[in-house]
Design a protein that fits this description.
Elements (H helix, E strand, L loop, with lengths): L14 E6 L4 E6 H6 L3 E6 L6 H19 L2 E7 L3 H10 L10 E3 L4 H5 L3 E2 L4 E2 L1 E6 L5 E7 L7 H16 L27 H4 L3
Parallel strand pairs: 3-4, 4-5
Antiparallel strand pairs: 1-2, 1-5, 3-8, 6-7, 8-9
Helix pairs in contact: 2-5
Length: about 200
């Protein structure tokens, strides 16, 4: 049985086959290459091609995709479909017209099991979003059941927060933090029981 990754752990190297609409061809995506390039990675697992909530997530992700890329992060969607089904879905579903990110194929469920989103009862992946830093460490995870789509604005917020904290290691981002320039907290003994005051309220 595959041991499921935990937050803070180094992600083992993996390589998956992809369909890449920008090249109209199949390709490969590996974590080692991401680490070599010092790029962040978001793995965006979803249940299946030719389904309904998934199409809306793909459209929302496409709208924000450039904001991830320009800040050093590559997004890869992953399901247990093959790359051939990815290609067919991309060609037929208009919600995917603006998709420019690679669509990863995990037909054996190996990667889905590693991240703890594989549903043995259906052979599908749950809606899991995972943020991996350029050193290959898992920093954030979100998992929803089949019937609830994810908020891409929140995924972008979490990525921006992790990016900010990577270079501002003494600071933490509170609940309503959205982007660089917003109020952060610097934990200390003096702040214990005084978070309200530290937030300037």
């Amino acid at each position: 049985m595959t041991e499921v990754l935990k937050l803070g752990q180094k992600v083992p190297d993996f390589e998956i086959t992809t369909y890449e609409h920008t090249r109209k061809d199949f390709g490969k995506f590996s974590l080692k290459e991401q680490i070599d390039k010092k790029r962040w990675t978001i793995l965006f697992f979803y249940p299946a091609d030719f389904t309904f909530v998934c199409a809306t997530e793909f459209a929302a992700l496409a709208e924000q995709h450039e904001q991830f890329v320009t800040k050093g992060c590559d997004v890869v969607t992953v399901s247990t479909d093959t790359e051939y089904v990815h290609l067919a879905w991309q060609q037929s579903e208009k919600e995917l017209a603006d998709v420019r990110y690679p669509m990863g194929a995990d037909p054996t469920g190996k990667l889905s099991r590693l991240f703890g989103v594989y549903d043995e009862a259906t052979g599908l992946a749950l809606r899991g979003a995972f943020i991996i830093n350029p050193e290959g460490v898992l920093l954030s995870e979100e998992v929803n059941f089949y019937n609830l789509g994810r908020n891409i604005d929140e995924l972008l917020r979490k990525f921006r927060a992790n990016l900010y904290m990577a270079t501002n290691t003494g600071e933490v981002c509170p609940s309503k933090w959205r982007d660089e320039g917003d109020k952060t907290l610097t934990p200390s003994a003096a702040m214990v029981g005084r978070v309200h005051e530290a937030l300037g309220r």
